[in-house]
Design goal:
Shape: elongated
Number of strands: 21
Helix content: under 10%
CATH architecture of the largest domain: Sandwich
Order of helices and strands: EEEEEHEEEEEEEEEEEEEEEE
Number of domains: 2
Distance between the termini: 27 Å
CATH topology of the largest domain: Jelly Rolls
CATH class of the largest domain: Mainly Beta
């Protein structure tokens, strides 16, 4: 089991109310899709096409539970006519380059999870909140813009509403598409990440890493990469109207601290037992983080109050 590190939104002014909502975090076990929109150097739209998520150069790691995005090196490599070498010859593609080594296009690289109204009608009648943590921001090259987004499309994709937030460094993000703005025409929902800028020189791809060229690593705020001795938690019911029950595999729970999404502590318990009841009756509807301390370490559990 992964050690879970509590990360708080320092600048996100989000207040949960009793209004119905669906909350998504960064989930690398979901089915992630890639799509590229190409633009000229004056930011005028040229074309768009589906693109395999791996070719997009988005790393989706379901084991580490991270999604890492980069500028795209593959388009450069495929169109310099010497794939894998970073070298140009007389056959480089003038659609993507104005001269040897000089890109003629910008690309908007979209990595996202998609749901449709037919299979998920509940997503189209209430607030949709997408949140997560930016573990690292390695985009040192100028001219690139990174965003998180929620997009709502009509059935034929001819129009959409986009809710977005520009990412400039490590930290937390929270983005909401208000349920009050959904209409009968809305049929497709997407949430994910976007990198916009010039196609990237594939000679730089060996530097590709979350802490190096272009890597922006996203993760659920309740997860980190440090291992601790495994503890199995059983949490029920979750979501809950009044009480969460938390039970371990015979490991004593020393303390429980409950925090709201803004990082404010709203409850503290010292059960010294393997099972604890957390009273949610006095809390507003929304998401909470329970920081659980045991002799084996500290873990965080995500709790939802209905």
């Amino acid at each position: 089991m992964k050690k879970i590190t509590l990360l708080f939104a320092l600048a996100t002014l989000l207040t949960f109310t009793s209004k119905a909502q669906i909350i998504f975090s960064v989930d690398a076990t979901e089915n992630w899709t890639g799509y590229v929109n190409a633009f000229d150097l004056n930011d005028n739209y040229v074309t768009g096409f589906a693109y395999d998520i791996a070719l997009l150069r988005t790393d989706v790691d379901p084991v580490g539970q991270t999604v890492t995005v980069y500028p795209n090196f593959k388009i450069w490599d495929d169109n310099d006519d010497t794939p894998g070498t970073g070298e140009f010859d007389a056959e480089w593609n003038p659609y993507w380059f104005s001269s040897a080594g000089v890109p003629d296009k910008k690309v908007e690289l979209n990595s996202f999870v998609e749901k449709n109204k037919t299979d998920n009608p509940e997503y189209f009648s209430q607030d949709i909140t997408f949140f997560g943590n930016i573990n690292s921001f390695g985009l040192t090259e100028p001219g690139y813009v990174v965003k998180v987004f929620v997009k709502v499309f009509v059935g034929d994709f001819s129009s959409n509403r986009t809710y977005e937030q520009v990412i400039t460094g490590a930290g937390d993000f929270t983005l909401t598409a208000p349920g009050s703005e959904f209409t009968a025409s809305d049929q497709v929902l997407q949430w994910g990440f976007q990198v916009y800028g010039l196609i990237a020189d594939d000679a730089l791809e060996p530097l590709r890493a979350p802490q190096a060229f272009g890597g922006i690593e996203f993760q659920d705020p309740a997860l980190s990469v440090s291992e601790i001795q495994q503890i199995d938690y059983n949490v029920y019911p979750n979501p809950s109207n009044d009480t969460w029950n938390v039970k371990t595999n015979n490991v004593v729970i020393s303390t429980v601290q409950v925090f709201n999404i803004l990082g404010k502590q709203v409850m503290s318990l010292t059960p010294e037992t393997t099972e604890v009841k957390i009273d949610a009756s006095g809390l507003q509807a929304g998401m909470y983080i329970a920081k659980i301390s045991t002799p084996n370490g500290v873990s965080n559990l995500r709790l939802v109050r209905k």
